[in-house]
């Protein structure tokens, strides 16, 4: 039996945490105090994790470039059907598919947009949102469809998450999007009715 090196008062046996070593035998192995696992975690955190974080942490100029690229994605969202009837025709030809309401929550924010329908091109890149009541393409900065650099079905959706979804959480759909990061998180957790934006 050996006393724990982290505790106890000299001369008072009951103040020591006495325990038996199993494979951490302090005489035969190299862990005399029995605290080597703590040291391993500290070494891994310092040597492995910190450089990875530093390597992937973007600089200010990189963040600004990413933000500009994110907002410019709409320049690729061209050639989409512009009327509700044209979209229905494109769906019937298999060029677009209507997504279920559960995959359209970010396009149903505000009392005038609850019935919006989201459509995605066959390759998953182009999006269009229509209001079936007005039969018009939704182009407001909160609910509009946006171009996806990666389709939602590519590699289990991981590239879509990093290149399309996370930038949306951070910056919204456009510089004119009045929602903020917390509004977008509320929509994720509580649904589109949880966010009230004036005029929407």
Q: Tags for this entry?
A:
alpha+beta, elongated, RHS repeat-associated core domain-containing protein, transmembrane, 200 residues
* Class from helix and strand fractions: alpha+beta
The amount of beta strand, in percent, is 5-15%
What is the overall silhouette?
elongated
Strand order of the largest sheet: 3-4-5-6
What does the average pLDDT come to?
Answer: 80
Q: How many strands, which pairing sense, and closed or not: the largest β-sheet? A: 4 strands, antiparallel
In DSSP terms (H or I, runs of 4 or more residues), the helix count works out at 5
What order do the SSEs take from the amino end to the carboxyl end, as H and E? EEHHHEEEEHH
List the uncertain runs: none
Q: How would you describe this protein?
A:
The mean pLDDT is 80. This protein has a domain at 60-190. 16% of the residues are buried. By secondary structure, it is an alpha+beta fold. Strands 3-4-5-6 form a 4-stranded antiparallel sheet, covered by helices on one side. The chain is elongated. The chain has 5 helices and 6 strands; from the N terminus they run ββαααββββαα. It is 33% helix and 10% strand. A hairpin with a 5-residue loop joins strand 4 (117-121) and strand 5 (127-131).
């Amino acid at each position: 039996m050996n006393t724990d090196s982290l505790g106890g008062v000299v001369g008072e046996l009951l103040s020591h945490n006495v325990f038996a070593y199993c494979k951490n035998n302090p005489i035969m192995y190299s862990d005399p105090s029995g605290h080597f696992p703590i040291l391993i975690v500290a070494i891994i955190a310092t040597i492995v994790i910190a450089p990875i974080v530093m390597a992937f942490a973007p600089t200010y100029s990189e963040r600004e470039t990413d933000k500009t690229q994110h907002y410019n994605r709409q320049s690729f969202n061209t050639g989409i059907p512009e009327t509700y009837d044209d979209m229905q025709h494109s769906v019937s030809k298999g060029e677009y598919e209507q997504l279920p309401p559960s995959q359209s929550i970010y396009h149903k924010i505000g009392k005038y947009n609850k019935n919006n329908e989201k459509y995605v091109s066959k390759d998953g890149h182009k999006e269009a949102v229509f209001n079936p009541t007005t039969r018009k393409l939704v182009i407001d900065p909160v609910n509009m469809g946006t171009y996806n650099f990666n389709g939602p079905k590519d590699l289990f959706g991981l590239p879509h998450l990093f290149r399309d979804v996370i930038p949306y959480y951070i910056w919204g759909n456009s510089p004119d999007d009045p929602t903020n990061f917390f509004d977008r998180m509320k929509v994720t957790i509580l649904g589109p009715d949880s966010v009230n934006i004036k005029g929407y």
